[in-house]
Amino acid sequence: MGTSATATNELPLAGTTRTRTNLQLATQRFVHHRLAMAGLAITLVLVFIALLAPLLAPEPYYYSDLAQANEFPSHHHLLGTDAIGHDFLSRMIYGVRTSLLVGFVAVLIACCIGMPLGLVAGLRGGMTDFLVMRVVDVMTAFPGILFAIFLISVVGGGLFNVIVVIGLTGWVTICRLMRAQLLSLREQEYVTAARAMGASEAAIAVRHLLPNALAPMIIAIALAIPTAIFAEAGLSFLGIGINEPTPSLGKMVSDSAPYIRVYWHLGFFPTLAIALAMLGFTFVGDGLRDALDTRLG
Amino acid sequence: MGRYILARLASLLFVLFAVSLITFLLMHTVPGGPFDVGERRLPEATHQAQLRKYGLDKPLWEQYVRYMWHAVHLDFGIPFQSPTDSVIGLIKRAWPVTIKIGLLTIGISYTLGVLLGFIAALRQNTWVDYLVTFGATLGLTVPNFVVAIWLVLILSVRFQLLPTGGWGSPKQYIMPVIAYSLAPMALVARYTRVSILEVLHADYVRTARAKGLSERRVLVGHVARNALIPLVTVIGPQIPNILTGSIFIESTFRIPGLGRFFVTSTFTRDYPMILALVLLVAALWGITYLITDILYTVLDPRIRLTGAAVMRR
Question: How many CB pairs below 8 A link A and B?
């Protein structure tokens, strides 16, 4: 297979119509999608900030100087200082790091639970499917962030627990989509054709079902990241998420609430960062949907 | 149809049972009971008496069965956070506040959402359409507590028009309702737009135009009537969600509604309250889903309810 692929690449392109692979077409659609590119730009900047946080932050996130508490933005502290004298810009930079860390790792956990469960449910059907779907039913009965709040009350807050809890509550969507994809793909004519030609069920799953389920899964995973970021910000906002001294954008918002009438910057900048993070990832996800899913048009 | 509803009710009961059991077990397996209040240790005898009073000295299964027996009779026990009251009493006092915001939110967001979606669809690919579509993406993406803080910064801090929070005068309703309405409004607008666009090019709409109906009658009688039916499946499941309140909105604006109990009860490990809230929300959700599905078949006779055909979205 490797040789045939290189052979195709070496074909002279001159004089023939250039054929494009699906991936190239999708990339092209994505690049022409203005919102998606804006989202990608925001996302890349945030990832850059998160990765280089120690280099970018003017002060360590735990450094506070009470003598300089509650200062407005100035050239000294670009975004001012908070109520206990943290440099607000530094806190924001590390807060972005926390947000993205939770977003990526929690979604990874959700995928590790949701995808295998969706796979077995969709492929094996029958009793397995029934059991998995009942678990999914029960999980859906806890609306929104309620189950996460509830689990946090059991295991306590903190970065690690928050990541695990968000992962544990986020797998349902991924599992359900995986299963639905497999069920609908199984009815496709090319699968019937493969079966008629004597392909084994395992071969059908690997060759036909999984590659075709890939695009919707990528979209779902991309859109799960902003959901996880929101969950972290929300839990921390309620005071049950990330603990001190780790900075979290959500916690910075709720901490600022008592001072917001005077020190507007304490409320404005973290909310702006949360909104930007959510929008960036969502735009990328929406762009991927438009680029990958040609059926929706 | 009858069999379908029965099956759905059975599955709803199962979900409620599982949810209550999980909640019950999780709450009881964690270290720390409602009565260890930091350093203020009580004498052992008092502690025992307290546990006995609330039935916490009984074996777990007995506590659960007893709890469920009372719960079926709408007696959810005594909340640890306010022992002179009953859970149902506390909920009865807090819920109307949340429902008031919820109903306002539903009214405003659904009306405006349908209207905006309709306009966007009729002006497809114009700036109006792009504005509504982009606005809807913003409304669905930006968390409501972020919107809430922005509203406070603009309306209370900058222009000093409204109080930053609290509850009582109608002025204090405005910001919570706006912050809470944006997301459902965006959702409804987005679905309305797609739904109208689909119908707009249907054969029967062309027929209606061809036989010379006025544009208004085509839009109201044919387009809207058919396009709004699928909206039921979007609007329906949102209702219990909205009516049980947003934890974020209520904590930002210091509203004495149901939402804050989710957090306070979680912190005080107030088992009776948490169980009641979780069961209440889960039951509301299940029932609304069921009603939505049934309503959908009534409104659109083409849809038949059979076991697998109508899956939960």
Answer: 118
